[in-house]
Amino acid sequence: MPSLTRRVALVALVLAFGAVAAASCGPVAAPGAPAPADSTSGGFTTTATPRATADQVRVPDAAYGSLTLDAPPEASCEVAIRVIPGTRGERPAQSVAVTVGRSGRADVRYPAPRVPAGDARYDVSCGTPSGIVTASVPFTVPSRAIVATGVTVHVVADRGVADGVVDDAALVPVRDAVIARLRSDLAAAWDTATRGLGKLSLVEESADIRIVVAAQRGTSANRTDADSSQDVIIYAEDDSGVVAPASSVSVALHEIGHIWCCHGPGTIAGHWATAEERPGLLGVDRYGLMNHPVVCAKLPSGVETCPVRFSDRELASMGFTAIPPPIPDPCVVRSLELKAQLADVEARLDAVVPGSLTTNRAIDAYNLLVREQHAIVDQLQRLPCAS
Predict the structure, then answer these.
(1) Strand partners of residue 127
(2) pLDDT digit string, tens, across residues 245-281
(3) For residue 197, what are the contacts with CB-CB under 8 A and spacing of at least 6?
(4) CA Rg, the chain, in Å?
């Protein structure tokens, strides 16, 4: 049995070893005590993010269009969205309802259309078994540029009153036909107009710009306000008469083009002061899309056709640099070929001397030229373009 002196020395040694171990391993939690918030591992320090308690609401992450909400599990919450909307364009929802899951966390997303940059705030109110708990958190709406390489568009009907004018019931079918044409053709037309450099996507929410089509008479325009908000309005009838659905695509391209074009020397009110023909652009497209007035043409069938391609200087104003040459419109190329053939036939008919048709052979040759003339005119009338 060890002596008393030996037992005391042994106890002192154990206590000294425990002190060294405690100093090298950090603080040791007492039994049943919570772990410390900070811990170290591999040289990195991590801090646990505290979740909301039974009577708290926290918003650890807030941005325009999204937020993360920590609240008592299964709480029913309402998030008020305090964003300053623009004068033009679409507005975000004023609030969104949220049911928090058992985890006590909800990731919230909502449509976020383009609005002016500035300060904003979320006001959160949650109903829990113990009562109403609230929180308020500020965030910033960043500046959101519209880029021609990926512009998003929402096409809608103006139902009711636009600019204080009541809809004309007789123009409602025209409005609806214009909307249908824009929704079906505008994206492809943008690709052609920008020579494949730009992309336009039609969306139902969070658009860069909204196109409003009104069953009214007026002048279509890109409406831009001092707060940088803007939209496009297209009227079913203008000074030239009822807008054809096909022409509405040209109108939309022109008004969207005003987002970037045309400012500075050589321009007047967002248009080029002087129309200039551009190599490779033919027919009604030869001056581009951003002149005033936009030059359209009447087809032999009586249908109006308007420009649908941007010129080099217009594409440059959109920010494009490596601009490829335009691909000739096959329809316009064919129209020019037919017109050249028609001019040749008509010149040969004009060269026929009166009284020279004295033989059957001469008469047959003349009639053949007349039939050829009629066939060329018929082909020209069937073309959906003008040269």
Answers:
(1) 76, 132
(2) 989 999 999 999 999 999 999 999 999 999 888 888 9
(3) 148, 149, 315, 320, 323, 324
(4) 36
